[in-house]
Amino acid sequence: MTAEDYVHIPSRASEGLAEPPSALVAVQAGISPRLYNNDLAPTTREGRHWSAYSIFTLWANDVHSLGNYVWAIGLFSLGMSGGAILGSLAFGALFLFLLLSLSGFMGEKTGVPFPVMSRIAFGVHGAQIPALLRGGVAIAWFGIQTYLASQVLQVIIIALAPGAAGLQEGSFLGLSALGWITFLALWVLQSIIVSYGMEMIRKYEAFAGPIILATFVALAVWVLIQADFQISWSNDAPLTGADLWLHMLGGASAWVAIYGTFVLNFCDFTRGAKSKKAIIKGNFWGIPINMLFFGCVVVVLAGGSFTINGEAITSPADVVAAIPNTLLLVLASLALIVLTIAVNLMANFVAPTYALTNLFPKHLNFRRAALISAVIGLAILPWNLYNSPVVIGIFLNGLGALLGPLFGIIMVDYWLVKKQRINVPELYSEHVTGEYYYQRGFNPRAITALVISGAAALMLTFVPAFQVVSQFSWFLAAGLGAIVYSVLADRRGPFHDVEGTEIAVTPTH
């Protein structure tokens, strides 16, 4: 190898830290600039600031997203009682607590983001496949969520300045003048926040979490008062017997599938976790406890509204729209915008940013990649995607179906094949004898498992004959990916457990 094959690791002495004596040795051992930069490097222990509260606030925001409320309130409309909804969410929460803890521990141990973590199973170059699949789904939803939030902002503007309603007339590329103003305003705001890196995202989530929880408590109390504290625990045609249990388990499975993206790249956040204890504690309060609280709010909003109007609402936005006081309506709407931005940052901005950084590490850092992600999210005109059933149904659902098999493959490789023995420096090596180089940087066994299980996942998603088990498709696809890879995986080793201390970087943003 020549000197050009090695990456320059910025001096830690410039950060007030002693230069590790083995850093130069690590670089000369084969760290490649095509695989490494400061944002892809493992994080130092002293640079990890994500506490249990930080992780809890991730879930305090994401669980209470408007999309989740629309889905859960839909269970009431399908005939599930309030108790059945709570039971379904409880089952799903237990599964998620386990899956997210397993996924989160990977990030805490290695300190690397998801694209680098994927190199363990797919190879140093093959990891581009799961990274881009996850990032592709996220970047589309980033634009769509921003568009949905911009509609709420339009409601606020018209409530404060009714004359602005005239700006909703006409259209350019699918949006009115007011639509463009509100979309671009939120687009710029999110781009600014994410340009300051993961630490700013952590601070925003910590700020937004209490606001969101207080807002939904207030909405639930308001509905209870309007309903004279009488709520309907079911609609006029409640499910019973086997149908009820099938819908409960199906709802639990669908609840896990909603987080199929997040269980995959949770290590993007837990690479900054202070300890495994912080992950467990944050997940415990944020998943089972917070999700049951979410379920109680759903029951109150759906059951209370049914008592008041004789029909269930479809979204908390319906409750907000019915608030007769302009000031309270504006405050509640602002809280929903704060929520949507929080969800967008964590679920739909981080993944494509790391995916692009991983694609061009010599040219992109987190900030540049984040801005490119934002530009792509604008350029795809996401409101047209949202209004196209073909795009939502085929493109996004198709990509999403592949995330289950990816999870199964990566989990099996890390926990059962490698048994947590990870050689972190080798994740950045392109040497032909590198532990994760496999064949020209690709692991054909993992890719074959993805092709087989991915094909099955697409069948479960799109073939009408499998509609009866569609609610369980994520579990079936993830399980199939795990089984196929378990059969195909090379277990011969040896697998070395080497920390990445010598090449670790203390995050500066």
Automatic annotation (TrEMBL):
InterPro entries: Pur-cyt_permease (IPR001248), Uracil/uridine/allantoin_perm (IPR045225). Its main location: membrane. GO terms for molecular function: nucleobase transmembrane transporter activity. One of its GO terms (cellular component) is plasma membrane. It is a multi-pass membrane protein. It is found in: Membrane. CDD domains: SLC-NCS1sbd_u1. The chain crosses the membrane at residues 69-100, 138-160, 172-194, 206-225, 245-266, 287-308, 328-357, 369-386, 392-417, 446-466, 472-489. Keywords: Membrane, Transmembrane, Transmembrane helix. Belongs to the purine-cytosine permease (2.A.39) family. This is NCS1 family nucleobase:cation symporter-1. It comes from Microbacterium bovistercoris.
